[in-house]
Sequence to fold (501 residues):
Amino acid sequence: MSEGTVITITSGKGGVGKTTITANLATALAMRGHNVVAIDADIGLRNLDVVMGLENRIVYDLVDVIEGRCRLRQAMIKDKRLEGLSLIPAAQTRDKMAVSPNDMRLVCEQLREEVDYIIIDSPAGIERGFQNAVAPADHVLVVTNPEISAVRDADRIIGMIEAEEKGPGRLIVNRIKPDMVARGDMLSIEDIVEILAIDVIGIIPDDEEILVSTNKGDPLVRGEDQNRTGAALRNLAARVAGEEVPFLDLKAKDTMLSRLRSWVGGRS
Amino acid sequence: MDTQLTQIKGIRDGLLMTISSGPPHDELLKILAAEILAKSTFLRNSRIALELHVRKMHRDQLEDILELFAHHGLTVWAVLSKRETTREAARKLGLATRLPGSQMDLEGNGRPEPVMASPKGRSGRPPNALFVKETLRSGQAIDYEGAVIIFGDVNPGAEVVADGDVIVWGKLRGLVHAGANGNLKATISALDLTPTQLRIADQIAVTPKQKRRQPMPETAAIRGGQIVAEEWH
Fold:
């Protein structure tokens, strides 16, 4: 068996959607038949367990593994709804200094033997937590929003990833609102790429459904409806798995009528 | 060995060791180990600043080199490199960083040591220009006592401070300070001049808030006491 790939999701700025994307990417990869483990590296501010709906099953966490209180397997919470998906949660009562970049490398070395993908949810910021999350990465995905401050922070992060010899990384533009872009009120993908000058691997349109699914702890990609945000996230997973998938045409009007049509179409 | 990989000279703060860019990393380590051993009596207990010129070095590689020096009881405390990525890696390892050929006080915080007699540096001539062939991203900075030429963009959040002129062969969107030593004749030129802020000597200017226009090469200079931009030709 070939060794698993470590992918870190990071952004610099907080609140751009790292955790939501981690949960959905891990879920979508598992739905494609891969063995996937998601790791919450946000020690002290753990969230990924909530978004993945596994909060009430935590017994051991990442810091317990590192400090030798349990074996790695014991901290891996298997998602009973989906074969091949598990989570290693962060410790909530500790802070970033409880983990070192080398600890993360060691944990991932062990996991590589067991799974196909290790998806790490990085905390915001450029300090220890970020360095921990990036240290073991084979690939880094940088999440940004179509707003100046998020793009500025993404630029800083890309510079730091390059200094860590983790390549320039690839970009996920999250929360784009196609109609606002069309009116010229929001940065377009072209505007963002012009500044950051790295490859785009995902373009995720904004959607109220994502909030609903996040609160329910049921990642959107698992839904079977014709939601285009879910489709964009599944496409992201396909590209991560090495498939060539064209980007969705976000200019197509997502009107009530077309939604109706897709519902009708979905049933038949 | 005919040509030596390293050159050593004394500076105010210990020794400056220049490593010519050449062999790949592993080979470099081997040669370096041999040269350190050969010069061990001369080097003993020295504090060393490493001049890496344009050689690209990542954190792991730098760490290898620091270990090698540490193994022989030598301390590396600063890295001089033209590459921002190398300097950033060095900073991560807790080293001081400077641009090569810098006449600055290596101990200082990026400001030149006070030169009493000649404001143009010790030799009386202005230093050569620094050529930077990379895009400066947010948080990256260049500080140089001559002119600076950047072949790439200067992104918002990046800073260039130069005593001479600054030329950006790309988009200038960050902050540039030319003539930082008070030179009112310094200019700033870019293929697309839309900086967050421009400074020449003690003057400060911002890009006027107007609708985005067609990018065109412009030069900024002080005219009649304030900074103005005009077509670059």
Remarks:
- The longest helix of chain B spans residues 25-38.
- The first strand of chain B starts at residue 6 and ends at 11.
- Residues 130-226 of chain B form a domain with the Pectate Lyase C-like fold (CATH 2.160.20.70).
